[in-house]
């Protein structure tokens, strides 16, 4: 007999980790757009992006599921990466000291820190 354990803790009882998402475009420069969202403690970036999309009609994103590497960010606010044009969505993080780093994992593995700034940058390779 299998037993399924279900946590009785609701979203309201969990610790919320707030962070911001900044959408930038290095290919066609325009003003960045900043959004606020959160994940539950130890939650992944994908969850925060989904929450943001559900709560803010001005933000939308799509992703594909790679069988080896997991979720891969495909488009943000209607703008998709394009292999023929060598464009893609780069994932960056801004540290408290202002240093900007390239995230070493994708949206399905990255765990945002409290008050972190996640930068989704449309760029070329």
UniProtKB/TrEMBL annotation:
GO terms for cellular component: extracellular space. One of its GO terms (molecular function) is cobalamin binding. InterPro entries: Cobalamin_Transport. It comes from the Eukaryota. One of its GO terms (biological process) is cobalamin transport. Coiled coil: none annotated. This is Transcobalamin-1-like. It comes from Sander lucioperca (Pike-perch). The gene is LOC116040447.
């Amino acid at each position: 007999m299998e037993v399924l354990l279900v946590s009785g803790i609701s979203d309201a009882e969990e610790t919320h980790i707030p962070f911001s998402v900044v959408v930038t475009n290095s290919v066609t420069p325009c003003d960045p757009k900043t959004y606020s969202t959160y994940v539950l403690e130890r939650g992944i970036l994908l969850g925060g992006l989904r929450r943001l999309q559900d709560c803010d009609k001005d933000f939308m994103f799509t992703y594909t599921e790679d069988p080896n590497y997991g979720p891969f960010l495909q488009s943000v606010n209607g703008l998709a990466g394009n292999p023929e044009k060598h464009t893609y969505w780069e994932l960056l993080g801004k540290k408290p000291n202002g240093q900007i780093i390239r995230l070493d994992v994708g949206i399905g593995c990255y765990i945002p820190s409290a008050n972190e700034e996640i930068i989704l940058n449309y760029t070329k390779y």
